Amino acid sequence: MNGTGFAEVLLEAGLISSGSMSGVLSAKNYSRSLNCHKVLMEALEKLIVGQFLEQHVEEVPFEKLPESSRDLIENLAKSLNKVTEIAALSDQHICSYTAEYMQF
Q1: Widest CA span of the chain, in angstroms?
Q2: What is the 8-class DSSP label of residue 63?
Q3: Could you tell me the residue range of the domain that residue 96 belongs to?
C-alpha cells in the first residue's frame, strides 16, 4: 500500500489517527479497518456513478428510463425489502441500465 495515498486519505478524512494507522492498514484492528474500506469504497463508487451519469448526459438520474421503471427505483429507495428488490430486478429497462453501468 506504500505510495498509494490510501493512508493519507484516511488520515485527512479523519477516519483514523496517525497512531492507529499501522493497525488499520495491517487489519489488526479489524473493525476500524473494515469501516475505513467501506467508506473509501462508497466514496469511489459515488465518483464512478457521477461520471457514468455525466457520460449519459442526464440532468436527472434515470430520466431516460420509462416512468414505470423510475417508480420502481423510487419504491426501492423508499422501502428496501424483498418485494421492491424483486420488482426492480425484474424490470428489463432497469436491468439494461444496470448492465450499461457495469460495462462502464
Answers
A1: 52
A2: T
A3: 58-104
